[in-house]
Write a structure and sequence with these properties.
Elements lengths: L1 H10 L5 E5 L10 H15 L5 E5 L9 H20 L4 E2 L2 H4 L15 H16 L6 H19 L73 H11 L38 E3 L6 E3 L19 E2 L1 H6 L3 H6 L4 H19 L8 H16 L7 H4 L7 H6 L2 H10 L8 H5 L8 H10 L4 E2 L3 E10 L8 E2 L7 E10 L5 E6 L13 H9 L7 E4 L6 H9 L3 E5 L22 E5 L4 E8 L2 E7 L7 E2 L5 E2 H9 L2 H11 L9 H24 L10 H19 L8 H13 L21
Parallel strand pairs: 1-2, 2-3, 8-12, 12-13
Antiparallel strand pairs: 4-5, 6-7, 8-10, 9-10, 10-11, 13-16, 14-15, 15-16, 17-18
Helix pairs in contact: 2-3, 11-22, 17-18
Length: 741
């Protein structure tokens, strides 16, 4: 850095000011003595250059633990003293950004747009008001600054000096004795919101200092702040008005004036006293009165436009291009390389290299088998001359299809054992991760997102096979899924690989899963079941500007015991309890049974409907809970899954199914008039996609199949294609056919 500054001064001699900002990412990893030595060398260097160099202090971390915060706080304090001793201007950013999470991005490391704007304002303010008290001047000015500050603003504790008789009308203290509003410095508010400068009076003031230069910013070099004074200023900045974010979409679950949901809770359902119920663990107080004003948060503001993204709009022109968004060339190359490697290992020199056309044809036949709902049908019957489909024999032979199914791989078999020791999903990890990373790139979910589990049926050998008796298949591979509640678009997925090698169950698994699934969302509402819903997870989602609505297990320690009994409670009755940012409801749908739901979105106990008297929380939960289940149902209707004992192939079949469904969602969002009026539009899209995938393989076939129907299909497709080569009569097969695809 020292050499860099000298080069800048030499290359740009007209530069007057240089700002050196202290980063916070690598600081916490270095030793303190090394840091001090480097900064001392830097300060000695900048003291000798002609340009005025400003040292900008580090930003306080909002995540990362107490150790990183303590190191940066100590470094900021030491830098302030060192810059004063070397007569170098120091810009203090630490107190300006402390505990202000709304100025940082979700990961808590980088500033967002508001934070960058505030930091830039603070830097320019310091450039316009440079003042560096030296070590000798610091002692002399200390008493003067204290007297001047007390004369203008009181003693900064809320008490003002008693005004004289001649200036009672100009006293800033109100009749109630409250402290006046202190003027804010430019880093804390806009210039338009600054209070007007007071009119000049006969009161003696400190010469050569205007009111604008004597501000209460912790970074201002004109005042020497004590720790108590800094705490007061920081407390004042928390109440600084923030710019209202641009509201793109009103949240559908936000309580709005709805005639059907304006009925208050009946008097017999809610106690009229101000009683407080404690939770089972004794840590949470639940009140019967909701908070009059909901806390300020951006949970109802969605900054992304729901629907296909710009990338999807620019790349989609037919159903085939929509499908290729999710299975791009990089994933196809991995599959082709690994499959050819396995083919050479198994068949040796007889193996013919498999290319993209063969792979597309294989995908197309799998999708067409799902269109015909042949998931349980044997592969031989699909190629049968009498009961089969002519399009299958027209694309490739049964032998080639079985060879591809046998040799298709998604990783290198030789180094797999080493990777399996730390990753159970090593056999398909690369393809899976690259595929999941592409899901959120092409579609933005609406305001409601559903998080739930999906079970892929599988009874073969798998190190993380799960048994869920409530599912129809009972055995299979469990996948956590986050889907749009309206379109059921699969936005994020994660394979559950079971317990660790030690055998100990994972702690806070629900917390980790729901935070991983919601990564990248902001302003949305998360609807989930009782596995994910808890008080701590709701609080953590609120920090990420997300709300949660879900059912709760009755053995949760956050619940008050008085909310659970159903004895002597009438049917369709509800009980509500609240905290500052959370609501609980206990609803009795039938005798001796109740359901408990938690919501960080709803703030009152509104009742909807006249028949069942269901709370608004339950109505909204029922409307948004089926995103994952609906996706699973639609995918299973035309699934391309084939019978296999290899679990990586089962996961890949699910990748094809979900990719085809997501492609259909994007295509229909961009072309809502496509086949309007027809009931089986998804089946028509899958049929068109399958035929498009197998067409290049049919066009380059040199020998037509033996059956007349399949041969006619090949000739018709080749004749319809302009410039396609003519086919030759079929030659008799050799005694030992060459292994090929």
């Amino acid at each position: 850095m020292r050499d860099k500054i000298l080069d800048i001064v030499a290359d740009y001699p007209m530069v007057k000011n240089i700002i050196v900002h202290t980063g916070s990412c690598d600081i916490v990893k270095q030793q303190s003595e090394v840091l001090k030595r480097d900064f001392i060398d830097l300060l000695n260097t900048v003291s000798s250059v002609k340009a005025e160099v400003f040292i900008s202090g580090p930003l306080p971390p909002v995540r990362g633990g107490d150790e990183g915060f303590s190191r940066l706080f100590a470094l900021n304090k030491w830098l302030s003293t060192a810059c004063t001793d070397h007569s170098v201007p120091f810009i203090n950013n630490f107190y300006l950004f402390r505990e202000r999470r709304h100025l940082f991005k979700a990961h808590g490391v980088c500033l967002n747009k508001s934070g960058v704007k505030l930091l830039t304002s603070n830097l320019f303010f310091s450039l316009r008001h440079p003042s560096v008290p030296t070590a000798k001047d610091k002692t002399q000015e200390e008493s003067k600054q204290e007297i001047t500050t007390q004369h203008r603003h009181g003693d900064l504790t809320g008490r003002m000096p008693p005004p004289s008789d001649s200036h009672k009308e100009e006293s800033p203290t109100s009749s109630s004795g409250t402290a006046p509003d202190l003027p804010l410095s430019p880093p804390f508010c806009d210039e338009e919101s600054l209070p007007p400068s007071p009119a000049p009076t006969s009161t003696p003031q400190t010469p050569s200092r205007s009111l604008s230069s004597l501000t209460l910013s912790p970074s201002s070099p004109h005042l020497e702040f004590t720790d108590h004074m800094k705490e007061l200023v920081i407390a004042g900045t928390k109440h600084t008005p923030r710019p209202t974010p641009r509201r793109l979409h009103n949240h559908p679950l936000t309580p709005l004036p709805d005639k059907a949901c304006q009925q208050p809770a009946p008097a017999h359902q809610q106690p009229a006293s101000e009683e407080i119920w404690m939770s089972k663990n004794g840590e949470i107080e639940w009140s019967f009165c909701p908070r009059s004003e909901p806390p300020r948060m951006a949970a109802n503001v969605i900054r992304m436009q729901p629907g296909p993204t710009r990338m999807a709009v620019s790349h989609v022109h037919d159903i085939m291009s929509s499908f290729e968004l999710f299975i791009p060339d990089v994933i196809q190359k991995i599959i082709l390389d690994c499959t050819n490697l396995e083919g050479r290992r198994v068949f040796g020199e007889r193996w013919k290299e498999m290319d993209q056309t063969h792979l597309y044809a294989y995908f197309g036949l799998l999708i067409l088998a799902g269109v015909f709902r042949s998931k349980g049908e044997s592969t031989e019957s699909l190629w049968d001359a009498e009961t089969g489909r002519e399009l299958f024999r027209a694309t490739m032979s049964l032998q080639n299809f079985q060879i591809i199914s046998r040799t298709i791989r998604f990783d290198n078999r030789e180094d797999r054992p080493a990777r399996q020791q730390r990753d159970k999903l090593a056999a398909i990890r690369t393809v899976w991760d690259k595929w999941v990373q592409r899901l959120p790139l092409f579609y933005n979910p609406g305001p409601n997102v559903t998080i739930d589990e999906q079970l892929m049926p599988f009874r073969g050998r798998c190190p993380f096979r799960q048994y869920i008796p409530s599912k129809p298949a009972k055995y299979g591979i469990k996948i956590w899924a986050a889907c749009d509640a309206t379109s059921s678009y699969a936005w994020n997925l994660q394979v559950y690989t079971g317990k660790a090698d030690g055998g100990r169950p994972e702690k806070n698994q629900g917390m980790r899963d729901v935070l991983d699934m919601a990564q990248g969302l902001s302003g949305h509402n998360i609807t989930c079941d009782n596995f994910f819903t808890s008080y701590k997870r709701g609080q953590e989602l609120l920090k990420r500007k997300l709300t949660m609505v879900g059912t709760m297990r009755k053995n949760r320690s956050e619940l008050p015991p008085q909310l659970l009994p159903t004895k002597n409670r009438p049917i369709n009755s509800s009980k509500f309890v609240y905290t500052a940012d959370m609501s609980l409801v206990s609803y009795v749908p039938k005798k001796t049974k109740n359901v408990v739901l938690m919501s960080t979105l709803h703030r009152d106990g509104r009742i909807c409907g006249l028949a069942h008297q269901k709370p608004k929380i339950i109505m909204d939960y029922n409307a948004t809970k089926g995103g994952v289940d609906n996706m699973d149902k639609l995918v299973s209707a035309y699934s391309c899954k084939r019978r296999t004992l290899r679990w990586p192939l089962v996961i890949f079949f699910d990748i094809l199914d979900i990719s085809a469904y997501n492609a259909f969602v994007i295509w229909m969002a961009l072309n809502p008039e496509w086949n309007r009026g027809k009931l089986q539009r998804r089946r028509l899209s899958l049929e068109e996609l399958g035929k498009t995938l197998v067409k290049p393989q049919i066009l380059r076939r040199q020998h037509v199949p033996r059956t007349s129907a399949s041969a006619a299909t090949v000739r018709r497709i080749q004749e319809d294609n302009a410039g396609a080569p003519s086919t030759q009569p079929t030659e008799p097969p050799s005694a030992e056919p060459e292994v090929s695809v």
